[in-house]
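Q: What would this chain look like folded?
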Amino acid sequence: MNSELILRLVSLAAAGHRPPCGDPDTSGYWTSEDPDERALAQRRCRGCPALRECLDEGLTTKATHGVWGGHDLTNMPKATRSRLRAKHLAATTDDAEALF
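A: My prediction, written as structure tokens:
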């Protein structure tokens, strides 16, 4: 896990918060085999303070399954992943919502 994502998650925890994927009742949605559950996870990512760092982690580690930073990387075609990565790299920290 990259240090930026770790720092963001530790910061959230220190403030008494957790990202949507940290909810014990729904945390399995992010890695579910069920596409409908992963779609729900994608929607729950909106507004997450760790959104950019999470997407960076998924793209950098070349994750092939699950929702990362609001995007379902499960079986994502290489060309789509490349476009997403380019868009991610071009986005500013204030423009994280533009990644959707």
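The radius of gyration is 13 Å.
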